């Protein structure tokens, strides 16, 4: 048992069934992409971090119990006359599909019954943000429709990805993983990793931390009142908002 760092509320762990991607067969190709320079990482010193993550790759939990995000495209099947009742932990009671209608077709075929006898309920969980983000190199271009897809042919794969070094595994490796699995092509040939802009305490700038600075304010200058107003416009909890407002007032003194 522990306490929430934001609200101070007591957090009590609750075990729930989750959805996973089996990543074990991906270790070898993901390592070879970099070893053989099919994927070039700049600066090269981050290759060590890549190999460290890949060599210790675990199955990826892609479900999240949140109210926002892409819902898991899985449907729980109930067929009362066959005694098939909802059991979240039994994978055989689920079908995955692009839509409710497709799920009905799959369930009817799987259980050999008429669609009218089937009840479906889509999982309320949403996909991990990094899972949704990993599809980004090709999902905007009409994927999974790949036949005669001019946009996909024109824009996938790309050439260079530029991003912060802190998400080499969380985003970059997973884009490579999904591109390899779903399209058989790496989404880019080169990854250029840059440093992070940090605040005076060495913390990474983040909207959720309230420590982001507008570069234009650094160039043109601004007032303490404007800085405080921007903090109020954010989505910080009240105690954190008060903390950051106090810090900005200290600048004046």
Got a strand count?
A: 12
Major sheet:
3 strands, parallel
Strand order across the biggest sheet? 4-12-11
Rounded to an integer in angstroms, the radius of gyration calculated over CA atoms is 23 Å
> Between the first and last Cα atoms, what is the distance in angstroms?
41 Å
- Give the number of helices: 9
Question: Could you tell me the strand content as a percent range?
Answer: 5-15%
Low-confidence runs: none
Overall body shape: globular
**SSE sequence, one letter per element:** EEEHEHEEEEHEEHHEHEHHH
User: Number of folding domains?
Assistant: 3
Round the mean pLDDT to the nearest integer and report it: 89
Structural class: alpha+beta
Q: Fraction of residues in helices?
A: 25-40%
Structural description of this entry:
- A three-stranded parallel β-sheet has the order 4-12-11, with no helix packed on it. A three-stranded antiparallel β-sheet has the order 8-7-9. It has a two-stranded antiparallel ribbon with strand order 1-2.
- It contains nine helices and twelve strands.
- The longest helix is centred in the last third of the chain and has 16 residues.
- Helix content is 35%, strand content 15%.
- Strand 1 and strand 2 form a beta hairpin.
- The relative contact order is 0.11.
- It has three domains: 115 residues, no CATH class; 49 residues, no CATH class; 38 residues, no CATH class.
- By secondary structure, the chain is an alpha+beta fold.
- Helix 1 runs antiparallel to helix 2.
